[in-house]
Request: fold
Amino acid sequence: LTAARKSLEHTRSGGDGPWIEQASFVATQGDAATAIGGILVTLLPDTDPTGWGAYHWKEPPPPDALARRLGRPHLTWIFVSPFEAGQGVGTLLLSAAVRELLALGYTQLASTFLIGNDSSMLWHWRNGFRLLAYPGSWRRRFEETE
Reply:
């Protein structure tokens, strides 16, 4: 729980790129005091998403990056309580984020997940994400030499 709080604060404070607060939500249940999920969206540089540098700004992003629609939105965190998993909470959070991103003028959303996290990979696939080559993959290295 401590690690999760530190990671979320790192994102909210801009450590993962500018935070797109309008497209970030918390799902609650009952009296609205019980959080059952959340989604945080940040802004990555608008570079080749299969490149090594695609997920970090080389220089600090301009303070008005979001207002100028610079970069590419990135689904940085999405989480759902294990007691609510499989009930559509994550998909509803994603839908709300996408609605806001479209209203802001964005038409793409990148996301990442750890290799081996099959449930996350399937969730991304079911929700229309396209799998791109990992920058260090053998396939990508082979393609670059041709």
The chain is about 30% helix and 20% strand. The first helix runs from residue 2 to 12.
